[in-house]
């Protein structure tokens, strides 16, 4: 019998949101851990808000919503609130009822400075890694490090001489007038972006185009490929190695040496020497293109070197997800601090999205 095409909506619903989400949905495992992590950070949140005045949107709900934005590649807070208005799965994960209105998208802008001042992204990432069910998945002996370019929210047309000697814009060209850069030599010492002065001109290699960007760095444990450290720096030729030493240092304070895998960009004498001084075995890929590698047979003869070289490439999977799915390929923020906050939070989101499968496969 053919059913009727009835379009009459019901006035009341007696089905709980909990019942509308299937029992094996991946977000269930993620929400359970996120709720416990946010409960552990309650003291940090309380310190950011005044005890007086009108109650604000709870920061726990804001962070859950931002996680959904990363999971589902939603490109703006305005669209995120539109999705929260009608999507029952989103309402269930964030923790608002069916009849509760979605808040205005400007709430994120008003609270971003508060979350930034409290360094909540870094603390959230650390709390996720410290969760008992997550902590047992992590390796404390073998790590990999790498960096990736985060394109700044500024165009090359915004790059002007620092001394103000640039030519004024042509009349009648509008706000996006044509600019001819040919024959101009622009460097970070003489030029800066008027849109984001903290972004720097950088190119990945010879023959590549120059972009305004930052560099995001990640330290990965090799057992399951989870990122245990993240930071963002200005783009320059030394940033990756300096950040790597900074991130590995807390894990190197132990009697047994640990290993650190990295690509050819880290194959320098100073970097390898610094790692060995920290009791870290440098499993760095050899760079023999017209030069002598700082990695010799003392390291490459061991089977573990080959294992590290194979596993270190998994960090590219993390960066691929962070930049493509979580929207960090071209940041939507300006300034080192805001871009760094968004990058670190995206790293935490990547770890969380990996957890359902890892926890299901882990022995109980």
Give a brief rundown of this model.
With 364 residues, the protein is of the alpha/beta class.
List keywords for this structure.
364 residues, alpha/beta, two-stranded antiparallel sheet
Number of helical elements: 15
- What oligomeric state do the depicted chains represent? single chain
Instruction: Write the H/E string, N to C.
Output: HHHHHHHHHEEEEEEHEHEHHHH
Instruction: Quickly give the structural class.
Output: alpha/beta
What integer value in Å does the Rg equal? 24 Å
Terminal CA distance reads 49 Å
Helix content: 40-55%
Biggest sheet record: 6 strands, mixed
Overall mean confidence score, pLDDT: 90
How much beta, percentage-wise? 5-15%
Number of strands: 8
Global shape? globular
Given as residue ranges, the uncertain stretches (5+ residues, pLDDT < 50) are none
Fold and architecture overview:
- The chain is an alpha/beta fold.
- The protein is built from 15 helices and eight strands.
- The protein has helices at residues 17-20, 26-40, 42-46, 59-71, 77-86, 88-94, 106-117, 120-130, 132-135, 239-248, 269-277, 297-300, 303-311, 315-324, 336-361; strands at 142-151, 159-161, 191-193, 200-202, 211-221, 227-234, 258-262, 280-284.
- The strands form two sheets. Strands 1, 4, 5, 6, 7 and 8 form a six-stranded mixed sheet that branches.
- A hairpin with a 5-residue loop joins strand 5 and strand 6 (227-234).
- Helix 2 (26-40) crosses helix 15.
- The termini are far apart.
């Amino acid at each position: 019998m053919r059913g009727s095409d009835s379009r009459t909506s019901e006035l009341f619903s007696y089905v709980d949101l909990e019942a509308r989400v299937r029992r094996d949905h991946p977000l269930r495992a993620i929400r359970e851990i996120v709720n416990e992590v946010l409960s552990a950070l309650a003291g940090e949140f309380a310190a950011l808000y005044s005890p007086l005045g009108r109650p604000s949107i709870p920061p726990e709900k804001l962070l859950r919503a931002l996680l959904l934005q990363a999971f589902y590649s939603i490109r703006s807070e305005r669209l995120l609130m539109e999705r929260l208005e009608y999507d029952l799965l989103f309402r269930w994960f964030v923790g608002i009822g069916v009849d509760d209105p979605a808040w205005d998208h400007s709430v994120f802008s008003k609270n971003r400075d508060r979350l930034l001042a409290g360094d909540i992204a870094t603390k959230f990432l650390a709390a996720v890694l410290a969760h008992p069910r997550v902590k047992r998945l992590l390796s404390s002996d073998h790590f990999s490090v790498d960096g990736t370019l985060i394109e700044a929210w500024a165009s090359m047309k915004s790059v002007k001489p620092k001394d103000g000697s640039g030519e004024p814009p042509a009349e009648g060209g509008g706000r996006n007038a044509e600019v001819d850069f040919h024959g101009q030599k622009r460097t970070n010492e003489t030029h800066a972006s008027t849109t984001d002065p903290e972004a720097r001109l950088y190119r990945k290699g010879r023959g590549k185009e120059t972009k305004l960007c930052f560099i995001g760095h990640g330290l990965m444990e090799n057992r399951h490929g989870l990122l245990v450290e993240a930071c963002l720096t200005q783009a320059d030729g030394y940033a990756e190695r300096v950040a790597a030493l900074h991130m590995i240092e807390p894990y190197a304070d132990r009697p047994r040496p640990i290993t650190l895998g990295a690509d050819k960009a880290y194959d320098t004498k100073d970097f390898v020497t610094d790692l060995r001084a920290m009791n870290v075995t440098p499993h760095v890929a050899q760079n023999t293109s017209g030069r002598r590698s700082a990695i010799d047979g003392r390291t490459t003869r061991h089977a573990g070197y080959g294992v590290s070289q194979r596993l270190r490439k998994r960090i590219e999977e993390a960066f691929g997800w962070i930049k493509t799915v979580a929207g960090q390929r071209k940041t939507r923020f300006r300034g080192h601090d805001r871009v760094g906050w968004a990058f670190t939070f995206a790293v935490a989101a990547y770890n969380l999205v990996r957890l359902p499968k890892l926890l299901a496969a882990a022995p109980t």
